[in-house]
Amino acid sequence: MNFLRVRRIFAVVLLSLLLLTTACTPKEPGRFDQVQQESSRQKAGQAVAKNATQGGEFNKFFPPAGNGYERVFTQEKKGFAEAKLKKDGKDMAMLAISDTTSTPTTAASYANSTKKIAGYPAREIGNTQTAVLVNNRYQVKVLSRSPSFTASDREAWLQKFNLNGLARLK
């Protein structure tokens, strides 16, 4: 009987020592840890410009819901606002406004644009995005999320934005 008690105590002590030594052993850095530390310290490309417009300021320029479409705001942060365009519960498109002061190459990409929508330089980005540049600062995009939402639908929705109001935003 005494032998069983000693064996249990010995097992508990051994298990405790095992847990203590494994828990206190320093963890070897993983293969991505150094890259993560470097990217966390990196400032370029991550910060939003100080003078970027607050995302909430953009909401009033989005087109209203209607004709069976529902507009659901999904993201709002400094320099950016986004909404889903839904019909019958399905995502049809994403609507977005972004301040390009943080990404000047975005505004520069409209320099050779020959297409205009509502008087603003426009461009197709891939097969699913149409965008305009307002006041050489604000990019307004419509991104198809359904194959039935075509380039002409994207252009029509871009024209529903209050682009002239956005142009007056300071």
Explain what this protein looks like in three dimensions.
- Keywords: Signal.
- Residues 1-26 form the signal peptide.
- This is Lipoprotein.
- Residues 29-49 are annotated as: Disordered.
- With 170 residues, the chain is α+β, with helices and mostly antiparallel strands.
- The protein has a domain at 55-167: Protein Transport Mog1p, Chain A, CATH 3.40.1000.
- It has helices at 2-24, 33-41, 104-108, 151-160, 163-167; strands at 69-77, 80-87, 90-99, 115-117, 120-125, 129-134, 138-144.
- It has a seven-stranded antiparallel β-sheet.
- It is elongated.
- The mean pLDDT is 88.
Structural key phrases:
alpha+beta, 170 residues, signal, seven-stranded antiparallel β-sheet, Lipoprotein, Protein Transport Mog1p, Chain A, 5 helices
Query: What fraction, in percent, of the residue positions are helical?
Result: 25-40%
Percent strand: 25-35%
Number of strands: 7
CATH class of the domain at 55-167: Alpha Beta
CATH topology of the domain at 55-167: Protein Transport Mog1p, Chain A
Regions with pLDDT < 50 over 5+ consecutive residues? none
Shape from CA axes? elongated
What does the oligomeric state look like here? single chain
Question: Biggest sheet, in brief?
Answer: 7 strands, antiparallel
Question: Count of helices?
Answer: 5
Which CATH-level-2 architecture of the domain at 55-167?
Answer: 3-Layer(aba) Sandwich
- Could you say which structural class the secondary elements and strand pairing correspond to? alpha+beta
**Rg of Cα set:** 27 Å
Order the strands across the largest sheet as they lie in space. 1-2-3-7-6-5-4
Can you give the mean pLDDT?
Answer: 88
